[in-house]
Amino acid sequence: MLFAPAYHALREQALRLDVKTLGAAHGGVFGVLGEFGFPQGVATVVALGDGTVSVYFSGGGGSLGLGQHEGPRKSAEALLAEAPSALPLAAKDPALPLPQAGEVRFWFLTADGPVTAAATEPELADGTSPLTKLHGLLHDLLTQIRTTGQARRN
User: Fold this and answer.
1) Is the entire prediction scored with pTM above 0.85?
2) How far is CA 34 from CA 132, 133, 153, in A?
3) Phi first, then psi: what are they for 63, rounded to 5°?
4) How far is 100 from 47, CA to CA, in rounded Å?
5) Using CA atoms, how far apart are residues 113 and 100, in angstroms rounded to an integer?
6) ∠ CA(2), CA(96), CA(54), 5° rounding?
7) What confidence tens digit (pLDDT) does each residue in 39-77 have?
8) Which residue among 46, 74, 131, 154 sits deepest, i.e. has the most Cβ atoms within 10 Å of its Cβ?
9) Which of 51, 46, 47, 82 is nearest to 69 (CA)?
10) Which among 101, 96, 103, 130 is positioned nearest to 119, based on CA atoms?
11) Computed from CA positions of residues 14, 20, 22, 25, in that sequence, does the dihedral angle turn out positive or negative?
């Protein structure tokens, strides 16, 4: 896999945020990173309690500052509101692993640091994972990000 130099820095910055600066928490969650593992790399979606919404790709590129648009902002709020339900499934992992190909990894930014939970795409698609609802909200956010990006280009 090829990783753009800025990708790891952006991801690390998001995972190591001082959550006290983000404002309101949703049930103890100040932000969510949803990461999709593909054979060629990783896509990371960031939704923070201060309204920040971004997406970036390990191979380079992405979009920052999408929270200023209503669609991504509302979808991010729904994702953040659902995130506390997944906290019992999450654990600390100081290695901050990336998702494997075919895996979706969630990172929850809490006052005690980032915690993570992951599931495979098949588990999420067939509804056997307790992360399925969160996965659906993450896809809703991606749809809003794509729609906003298309509107900005037109």
Assistant:
1) yes
2) 13, 13, 25
3) -140, 135
4) 21
5) 22
6) 70
7) 999 999 999 988 889 999 998 887 777 777 788 899 999
8) 46
9) 51
10) 103
11) positive
Instruction: Say if CB 66 and CB 148 are below 8 A apart.
Output: yes
> What are the structure tokens assigned to 109, written together?
């930014």
Tell me the torsion sign for CA atoms 129, 134, 140, 141.
negative
The two three-digit tokens of residue 11, written as one number: 């991801």
Phi, psi (degrees; rounded to nearest 5) at 40: -95, -5
Q: Are 110 and 30 in contact (CB under 8 A)?
A: yes
Looking at 22-112, which runs of residues are DSSP E strands? Answer: 31-38, 41-48, 53-57, 62-63, 103-110
How far is Cα 7 from Cα 64, in angstroms, rounded to an integer? 13
Residues 6+ apart with CB under 8 A from 51: 67, 68, 73, 76
Q: Which residue has the tokens 């200023």?
A: 68
